[in-house]
Amino acid sequence: MIEEHDFRYAMESTRVVVQPERVIETFGSTTFKFLLVSELMDEVNAVRIRGGRIEAERPRIVSPHNFSKLLLDGFGDSAREYADWMQENAQTFKILRYGFQFKKTDFEQNVVRDSMEVVLGRLEDELAAKKDPASALISGVDDAWEVCLLKFTMDLIQRSAGENVNEWKRRGLI
User: What is the CA angle 151-101-86, rounded to 5?
Assistant: First the structure.
């Protein structure tokens, strides 16, 4: 289990070296490929490269009424009060819901005997040569690599949300 200080360290240490050019599609699912590079803590000049796919489901607009149904499952009175407030402010309050799936079928990992900087540089050059707009290169922490990947997905949601909302507005959906 990851301790709170390890979680915090992983969040602070996550760095996106190559950002995908694409954002999450407004009206369809989007697949991103990732390479997550981390130094092994018990070996010198040993780096683990993890790769795989993340599929972002089509974002959805969730009404306050429907959100309150999701929110209240297993929650108490304060959640009910918050849900009531959301329903009262339904005209001005919308929630975006993003879903992700980690495709373990495409998951790979390798250990490379070289420095972190050299490995990141080589992978960055390879991604630049491929010109894949859905690829990301992430530098992170080995023990808490999944936290690093989740941090990347949250940042991707933040990058995509404005574009998704603008597209919904252009189409008169919100």
Answer: 70
Q: Containing domain of residue 129, as a range? A: 14-59+98-170
Indicate if 129 and 145 belong to the same structural domain: yes
Entry pTM: 0.77
Residue 6 lies in a domain: no
Q: Which of 58-72, 112-126, 130-144 has the lowest mean pLDDT?
A: 58-72
Answer for the pair 56, 103: CB distance below 8 angstroms, yes or no. no
A 10 A CB-CB count for 134 gives: 14
Structure tokens at 161: 């949300």
Q: Distance between CA 74 and CA 51 in Å, rounded?
A: 35
The model's pLDDT over 107-120, given as tens digits with 9 standing for 90+, comes to: 899 999 999 999 99
